[in-house]
Amino acid sequence: MLLLDKIQATSFSPGEQSAVDFMLEQKEDIRDMTVKEIAAAAYCAPSTLIRVAHKLGFEGWSALKESFLEETEYLSHQHSGVDANFPFFKGDTDITISENLAVLECESIMDTLSMLDAAQLHKATMMLRHAKIIYILTAYPNHELTGMFREQMLRIGRTVVVVHQPLYAAWLMTPEDCAIILSYSGETGLLVEAARILNERKVPFISISNVGETTLARRSQATLKLCTREKLYSKIGSFSSEISVFYLLHVLYACLFESEYDRNVERKLGISRRVEARRHSTTSLLQEEEPEDTENR
């Protein structure tokens, strides 16, 4: 749920509503305002701001303000005008469709990048690095997306299991393992229950979900945000969310790869030379250089 949705669904006293209305009207302009300044401008007591924060599930006003500003900045970000739910229409030419999808997918990647938090990404990378086995829990349509991540990880010697029965897997995992729970809504019932089990069993997990405040994000030890421009089902394709998932999984693979760079380069290229040596192409850009013959030096 977006913070703005949560505000609309919450009942406030007259004083609290005055503070909320001021926040919604001023948006980014409250960034440099102190609690006293906001309270004075909203004609309420400073303690009222604290009560508003508590009602919305935050420990204090600073946490609420930070979350509000982040969400406001994201939602106000200007896009090209390509609708993520209907990026093309009846009568559009093939080239127009191609251009619109290219713009949408590029913007979706940049959106995802803009929401990456360095501390959260580093924590997620370290969780994967120290995991004995990495499990991916997600709904069926995402299994194909995560399959490519599994294959990439296999080539650097990491075991990734794409789970088809999340609850069974959650009970079988140990604290030495790590899970990635992927859900665009962040509220998928089966995955939320799996997260509860993982918390109970002290198994660390990374959540990947939308920009809003989700149950999965709250329960995870590290959270990554997907580009959030699509409806749940009123759309003709998941072009934006799927490319966002691909990008985040590629980022996790690359960051993990870099954490043991020399070892991973040696393993990846060494095995590839043996397994893929028969591949060839007449296109010069694709052709591999012959490995040096160190034995005859």
UniProtKB/TrEMBL annotation:
Keyword Cytoplasm set for record: no
Annotated ranges, domain SIS: 124-266
Coiled coil: none
Keyword entries, A-Z: DNA-binding, Transcription, Transcription regulation
Gene Ontology biological process terms in this record: carbohydrate derivative metabolic process
GO molecular function: carbohydrate derivative binding; DNA binding; DNA-binding transcription factor activity
Family matches, as Pfam families: HTH_6, SIS
Every HTH rpiR-type domain range: 1-75
CDD domains: SIS_RpiR
Entries under PANTHER family matching the protein: GLUCOKINASE, MURR_RPIR FAMILY TRANSCRIPTIONAL REGULATOR
This protein's name: Sugar isomerase
Source organism: Faecalibaculum rodentium
Lineage of origin: Bacteria, Bacillati, Bacillota, Erysipelotrichia, Erysipelotrichales
